[in-house]
Specification:
36% helix; alpha/beta; globular; 16 strands; Immunoglobulin-like; single chain; 18% strand; 5-stranded mixed β-sheet; 4 domains
């Protein structure tokens, strides 16, 4: 069995100036590489850690000497994102501090040309060994010492789990005197994610990291583990129960009281706060799934937004509703641009006046790849009436190019999501890197959002609009 063991967060080099700022204020003083002179640098926070909606907090222009300054008001420790063009750096900040950083140039050796955002590391000016970012770097060093030189082909699960336990033991000794509350949780839930990636087992994970533990809505690493653990959770839970199923409760009943009463029968979800957060996390995925009634999912989220007493849950619900309104049927299809295999930029506006069947796929997703041959069949029948556009959401453009080269019979536009300056198709359509489908009419409005996949019968929609090409019929005659 292949074991996945990787860090999913970006560890950022940063330094802390040793003086305090105005109460509840964070000041970031920086110097950027000369290649960024005259460019805009933006600072973002996360509005919530389910949808990962980003809120712009501050902006500045890198001056002729490379200097910039960003200020933000915060009330809790959190990671902030600093962006120049498509470069993306993470900085952990806490209230009442001034941070000093340098922003590097784009490294051509690491430039994966086409990624929506390229992570970069902020450089250290000075260091305090008790400062949060320095502690995070140190933990990353401990991780690398344990796992960098392992031969994973000869590493079974038991030996892998012992390695993780060894890492935890070393960290508990090393950070025994640490008093930073954020880092304590950072350490705990980074280890939780490592254990999860190493397929440690649901019972082990729930007993050690979920059951009886506080819900940390604003803690990035806790929520990263939470999102991973509870992905698809309600589907798996209802498959073990007789009678009710999640599809009926959402698509037909669409009452939050009924849904939460059913989910409450799960012993792990007796806690009201945890249960509601798990429901929101799964509804967020269901909104983009053709297996669920889009209007019913929105209605449930709206009910939660009005009834919840938890401010973080209200914000998550409102963010989901914002995405829902943006992608409602009848609304204008969000603009995007991507590149084709030759590197040419292609935009949605290039297909103005045409019906567009838009699908997202990943070469790492077997389910999304299964749809491609069926799309080819639809292209043959309806290609004169509807444009079929496929967008690859892989991190690596090499995988995209290899896939296109290996499938020369796929002649419709197959693009790569390079996402310049916020126009990433993956972002504006809020996909999760797996199969997703949208049908856009000839006026540029969303006709089906989400649309059915080809293997789920999307052709019925096309038959209702167009007559397919058959012998004896003239093209376009209905």
């Amino acid at each position: 069995m292949q074991t996945k063991l990787s860090k999913t967060h970006i560890l950022i080099f940063v330094c802390l100036f040793s003086f305090a700022a105005i109460s509840q204020n964070v000041k970031i003083k920086g110097k950027a590489h000369t290649s960024h002179i005259g460019k805009e640098i933006n600072l973002f926070s996360y509005s919530d850690l389910i949808t990962y909606t980003q809120t712009k907090e501050a902006t500045d222009t890198v001056d002729s000497n490379g200097y910039f300054e960003l200020n933000v008001q915060i009330d809790h420790t959190q990671p902030l994102i600093l962006k120049i063009d498509n470069l993306n750096a993470r900085l952990y900040v806490q209230p009442d501090f001034v941070y000093g950083i340098t922003y590097p140039k784009k490294d051509s050796l690491l430039d994966r040309r086409g990624e929506t955002e390229m992570p970069v590391q902020l450089n250290v000016i000075s260091a305090d060994t008790t400062e949060l970012n320095t502690l995070i770097i140190d933990f990353n060093d401990q991780y690398n010492r344990v796992f960098n030189y392992l031969n994973y082909e000869n590493l079974n699960r038991n030996r892998l789990h012992k390695k993780i336990d060894s890492l935890e033991f070393v960290c508990n000794l090393r950070y025994f005197k640490n008093k930073n509350p954020y880092f304590k949780s950072y350490l705990k839930y980074s280890l939780a994610e490592i254990n999860s990636n190493a397929t440690r087992g649901k019972n082990y994970l729930s007993n050690n990291y979920i059951a009886g533990k506080p819900v940390l809505h604003s803690h990035y690493e806790y929520m990263a583990f939470f999102n991973s653990y509870f992905k698809g959770y309600l589907n798996a839970f209802t498959s073990t129960k007789a009678g009710e199923n999640i599809y009926h409760l959402i698509n037909d009943v669409a009452k939050y009281e009924a849904l939460t009463a059913f989910v409450k029968t799960d012993p792990l979800l007796k806690n009201d706060t945890l249960r509601e957060l798990v429901i929101l996390r799964n509804l967020w995925d269901y909104f983009y799934s053709p297996q669920f009634n889009n209007a019913a999912v929105v209605a449930l989220v709206d009910q939660i937004s009005q009834s919840t007493t938890i401010s973080e849950h209200k914000q998550i619900a409102l963010n989901i509703l914002q995405y829902a309104n943006k992608l409602q049927q009848g609304s204008v299809a969000p603009a995007f641009s991507a590149i084709d295999k030759s590197g040419k930029t292609v935009s949605l506006s290039d297909y103005k006046g045409r019906y567009v069947y838009l699908n997202f796929f990943s070469t790492k997703s077997v389910n999304s790849l299964k749809e491609m041959p069926t799309i080819m069949d639809l292209v043959k029948k309806y290609g004169d009436k509807c444009i079929f556009v496929s967008i690859c959401t892989d991190d690596s453009i090499k995988n995209y190019k290899a896939y296109v080269k290996a499938n020369p019979k796929f002649t419709w536009p197959i693009l790569y999501d390079n996402g310049p300056k916020g126009l990433s198709a993956k972002d504006v359509y809020s996909t999760k890197g797996e199969a997703a489908f949208f049908f856009i009419n000839n006026y540029g409005n969303l006709m089906q959002s989400p649309a059915k996949s080809p293997t789920q019968g999307f052709e019925y929609k096309l038959k209702a609009l167009f007559k397919p090409k058959t012998k004896g019929n003239k093209i376009g005659i209905r």
